[in-house]
Design a protein that fits this description.
single chain, alpha/beta
């Protein structure tokens, strides 16, 4: 029987501990390829590099470092480096959470899985929350991902659906399906002056405030549960498509411009 082909990517970079530990853990599950950025690309979202060439360095067999984004990495992997379409794509394990509507919109980790779903690859993004001392339990998280990956390989996800998974620091209480909550950011913008007298700016993350129902990911994770959130590529607001009020508004607009 043919071994599953598994593609790993991330936004922390090829040399990050999370993706390395995950690769080691999954070795017995299938043929592992890693195609990941050559340096950190956090908050790169679904960006593609279109205005300068991409450089790729093969580090060793089935390991490639790309001077681009996670979305670039997935495209290149499928088009150039993999022998066939992978059976599973895992983006992560990310060093830190990707919770709520804001994180999942900005995250390069989540975007790696989203890009996989665009290409009809069963995909999931995995992020790990550190403990109170800032330490990450990557080995324990990788075992959880191994179990999830085994399940998805046996029970493929619906087309266009991918998973966003967040794992809290131990001890764990269990696993729950959770809807996206919100993490309201109020980032500091730091203004400084370079040696030539020109202003430059740093955008910080600030201290986000978690908002959401009790069954939202930002709240469930606080209780010690692994959160699994099914996300979809189709961002259409079906309620507006079906809303008579919205249609009347567009009819009024159409009458004004034609």
């Amino acid at each position: 029987m043919k071994k599953p082909l598994i593609l790993l990517t991330n936004d922390d970079g090829l040399y990050a501990e999370g993706i390395s530990v995950l690769s080691d853990e999954l070795t017995n599950l299938g043929q592992i390829y890693i195609v990941a950025p050559d340096q950190e690309k956090s908050a790169s979202s679904l960006a593609l590099t279109l205005h300068h060439p991409l450089r790729v360095k093969q580090i060793k067999k089935n390991r490639y470092a790309v001077n681009g984004t996670p979305a670039d990495c997935v495209y290149l992997a499928v088009q150039k480096f993999l022998p066939r379409l992978p059976d599973l794509l895992i983006s992560g394990i990310n060093h830190g959470p990707n919770l709520g509507q804001q994180d999942t919109s900005y995250s390069g980790t989540v975007a790696g899985a989203k890009q996989g779903a665009f290409l009809d690859i069963p995909s999931m993004a995995v992020s790990l929350i550190p403990d109170n001392e800032g330490q990450f339990s990557f080995a324990a998280a990788a075992k959880i991902v191994h179990a999830l990956a085994t399940n998805i390989l046996e029970n493929p996800l619906p087309q266009g659906i991918f998973l966003n998974i967040n794992i809290p620091a131990p001890p764990l209480k269990g696993i729950k399906i959770a809807q996206l909550g919100q993490k309201r950011y109020n980032p500091r913008v730091i203004e400084k002056e370079d040696p030539r007298g020109r202003l430059y700016y740093w955008i910080g993350t600030g201290n986000p405030k978690a908002l959401g129902d009790s069954d939202s990911d930002v709240m469930v994770i606080k209780e010690g549960y692994i959160t699994v959130t099914p996300l979809q590529n189709d961002s259409t607001d079906l309620s507006s498509v079906q809303s008579s009020k919205f249609h009347k508004m567009l009819e009024s607009f159409e009458a004004e411009i034609l």
